[in-house]
Specification:
4-stranded antiparallel beta sheet, Arc Repressor Mutant, subunit A, 5-stranded parallel beta sheet, Rossmann fold, single chain
Length: about 230
């Protein structure tokens, strides 16, 4: 069955171009020309991936991401926007976007980003993989995180980042290693993005995010994860 991509884009020429090229790639498509309609389709149609503009009528893309992530932590969101400032990229990623591509864009690059995001989504960790540390239970098969027996909402990227740390327990990993493994080669995001996501993850899994015991910063190098935690 073809994977379904929802395109939320108000520029008619860009929308038509994306429709034509993604159809040729074999994807099934849904389209919306404003944020309200895009959000409705995202919530009702359950697409496999969303390509999202930021400057949209009715609701902007940041608000759409925020609303989608309230009830859906898994669907990959690739932002496609003319807003190229680093602050906009960081905001989009911090709200839960999985990737951020700026206009004007290279079609082959965008297609590669889409394929990469869908591939990560398909390659979920093994169903038997459950990690327990402190008051945290991370079920990587169902992408369910509980802390103190309460479900905590997480984005796909946050879960992939936690999975990376769990797989490399007690190993010092650099920010570039994290970028390569979690975001993938060719992703134009900075090491500040890693720090931003680590900070968000600490807010969810650490008893005291200001004094982390599981996700330790190794100054000048990167991070180290410990299930036992610093004593």
């Amino acid at each position: 069955m073809a994977e379904t991509i929802l395109i939320i884009e108000d520029d008619h020429s860009i929308l038509r171009g994306l429709e034509m090229n993604l159809s040729l790639e074999g994807y099934s498509l849904l389209t919306a020309r404003d944020g309200s309609e895009g959000l409705r389709l995202a919530q009702q149609a359950a697409p496999d991936l969303i390509v999202l503009d930021i400057m949209l009528p009715k609701r902007d893309g940041f608000e759409v991401i925020r609303e989608i992530r309230k009830g859906n932590a898994d669907t990959p969101i690739v932002v496609l926007s003319a807003r190229s400032e680093e602050a906009d990229k960081l905001l989009g990623l911090s709200l839960g976007a999985d990737d951020y591509v700026t206009k004007p864009f290279s079609l082959p690059e965008l297609l590669a980003r889409i394929r990469s995001a869908l591939r990560r989504q398909r390659q979920s960790p093994n169903a038997a993989t459950v990690s327990r540390f402190g008051s945290v239970v991370a079920d990587f098969a169902s992408r369910r995180l509980t802390v103190n027996d309460r479900v905590v909402e997480t984005t796909t990227r946050e879960f992939e980042l936690l999975w990376f740390f769990v797989k490399h327990e007690n190993v010092v990993v650099t920010r570039n290693q994290i970028l390569s493994s979690v975001w993938g080669a060719g992703q134009f995001v900075s090491t500040r993005t890693v720090d931003n996501f680590v900070a968000r993850l600490r807010q969810k899994i650490e008893p005291n995010p200001l004094v982390p015991c599981h996700l330790e910063t190794i100054r000048g190098v990167g991070y180290r994860f410990s299930a036992i935690g610093k004593q």
